[in-house]
Prior knowledge:
Blueprint: H1 23-36, H2 53-56, H3 61-74, H4 77-88, H5 93-106
Amino acid sequence: AAQGGSQLIGGKVTVENLGEIDVTRIARDRINKRRSSGGSDEGFDRMGKTPPAHQSKQGNIAKRSVLDKRCMQKLPARVAQALSAARANPTNERQQARLKSASDSTA
Length: 107
């Protein structure tokens, strides 16, 4: 007995070529039909679906900037200065020391 497989005993197997399905042509025809019937394809992606809400939102960089300023003002002065310094210099002291020693050894 075969384990995990199938068996065919006797009988006749025939293979028929059924051709191809041109899904691209079908999709193009569907889009053209929608456009010709006066339907708007605005807000639809290539697959004919509306994008998810998180993808359709516009960027809110200005709002983030205002919120960031407000939060920075509410921080204690020492913490706000440390955060500003960290943002101004993307490397920390340990990274700076490593980079300095690497540049000293190459010179």
